[in-house]
Structures are given as structure tokens and as C-alpha cells.
Amino acid sequence: MKDNVNRPFSEDEKSGLYRAIFERRDVRSQFLPDPIPEDVLARLIEAAHHAPSVGFMQPWDFIAIDSVAVREQVLQIFEQENEKAAGNYQGDRQQTYRSLKLQGILESPINLCITCDRSRGGTHVLGRHSIVETDLFSTCLAVQNLWLAARAEGIGVGWVSILDQDKLAATLNLPEQVYPLAYLCLGYVSEFLPQPELQAKGWRSRLPLTELVHGNTWGQPVDNIALSEALKK
Ligand SMILES: Cc1cc2c(cc1C)N(C[C@H](O)[C@H](O)[C@H](O)COP(=O)(O)O)c1[nH]c(=O)[nH]c(=O)c1N2
Fold first, then answer.
1. Which of the four, 70, 77, 83, 182, has the lowest number of CB atoms within 10 Å?
2. Is residue 155 located within the same domain as residue 104?
3. Tell me: the pLDDT tens digits for 126-163?
4. Are strands 60-65 and 155-160 parallel, antiparallel or unpaired?
């Protein structure tokens, strides 16, 4: 597979990649209990491991959690935090918030915590001198690689961030310098929704790209007319 890396992508390969990007979903409600075969899970983790990282730091580790007891503890952390988060909203908005399903910790057959070891590679990691958070950015890219590869494999991924990080770190027995960057639920699904669940439930919609692309400096219109027209499509 790694021979001849300079050959152009075929039309099918390109459309497969874009399909994974556009049809990837955050999954909470549609998990099936079927286990993910080990070789498939290993492929997903290998895809994550091929993400770019600052100074080739590879700050990630992967904690595969199938223990129901551990997952129940994480669910408890979620429930405590979610109750606090609901307090951010009032009236109908709070009711809508409470009706949203924001995790699939027990319904999915496996959870995966992708961590960031902030000390990996020593004190001087190439490229991290000025922006110390680049290790966290790198780990986010590993998450996205896994998320896209999972979509191509027909596996749903749901990111759960409504968690107290210290309690999560303690539950997973993380060393001091290891940050629990992403807590993910993974499993085959009954369906992938055609649009984000938050959009389908009327919480928030995708913003028009024409409002998000600026020309040269913030707030300036794009002066390239062809680009401006292409963005409207
Ligand atoms: C860093 C981060 C953290 C979270 C999320 C995502 C990311 C990137 N998302 C998923 C998020 O709601 C979802 O990506 C958007 O609603 C867009 O939907 P699609 O991912 O396109 O389906 C998410 N979803 C959820 O139900 N509970 C959560 O705690 C979180 N947390």
C-alpha cells in the first residue's frame, strides 16, 4: 500500500475521502452492541497514529475501555457535569438541552480515551517552542484521523467532553503529565444521520461558508470573485 506514494488519487479514491469527511457524524444514539473486531480497531488506532504531530512528538496514547465498571464511573462523571451544564440554559432551551442525548458510554461496545502526554519528547520539542499547546493540537488531529477512518469502516464515534478532566484522569489512572484529551465512544451503528444531530434537533445549524471566509485580513470580503462564487455553491 505504501509503494508508489506519488501516484495521483483516482476519482474513486478522492470521492471516498470526501465521502468520509462529509458523512462522518458524531454518534450518541445509534450504537449497536456488536463488538468491533480487534483488527478493525487496530486499523483505526493506526490511522490515528499517522496524524501529523509537532516535532513528530506523537504525544498520544490510547486507552481501550471495555470494562463496564470503568465506563459506569465515567458515566457518573458525565451525569454530574451534565447537570451543571444544563444550568447554563433556561426555559425551553434548557428543556431542549435536557432532551439531547450527549453520550453513548454504555451503549457503545468500547470507549477509547486518546490522551496527550505533555512531556513526551523532552523539554524542547521542535516546533513547540512558541506555542506550547501544539501537542494538544496534534492529538486532536489523531482523533480526527480515527474518526474519519471509523466512518469508512462503518463505525460510529461519539466524543464526550462533558466530563471533569481531573476525575476522568483519576478514574483512568493517568500519570500527572498525561492529559485526557478525547473520550470517545465507538461502535457499529443502526444508521449514520444525514446531518448533525444538533442541527436535526434545532439546536444549531451549519454556518454559511460565505460568512466565514475573509480576504487578506479579518472582516474583509474575499476579493477573488471566482473563489467567492465557488464558496456559495
Ligand atoms: C471537542 C469536541 C467535543 C465534543 C464534540 C465534538 C468535539 C469536536 N461533540 C460532537 C459535536 O456535538 C458534533 O461534532 C457537532 O454537533 C457536529 O456534528 P457532527 O460531528 O458533524 O455529526 C460532542 N457531542 C456530544 O453529544 N457530547 C459531547 O460532549 C461532545 N463533545
1. 83
2. yes
3. 999 999 999 999 999 999 999 999 999 999 999 999 99
4. unpaired
As for how many domains the chain has, the answer is 2
Same domain for 226 and 142, yes or no, is no
User: Based on the domain organization, do 89 and 169 belong to the same domain?
Assistant: yes
The percentage of the chain sitting over the pLDDT mark of 90, rounded to a whole number, equals 92
Q: Note the pTM of the prediction, 2 decimals.
A: 0.97
Burial tier of 72 (Cβ tally within 10 Å: 0-12, 13-18, 19+):
exposed
Q: Is residue 84 domain-shared with residue 136, that is, in the same domain?
A: yes
Q: How far apart are CA 177 and CA 88, in angstroms?
A: 31
**Residues of the domain holding 82:** 25-194
**Cβ–ligand 1 contact at 203 (below 6 Å):** no
Q: Which atom of ligand 1 is nearest the CA belonging to 198? A: 16
Rounded distance from Cα 23 to ligand 1 centre (Å): 14
Residue type, 86: A
Atom of ligand 1 at shortest range from CA of 162:
29
| pLDDT tens digit sequence for 36-79 | 999 999 999 999 999 999 999 999 999 999 999 999 999 999 99
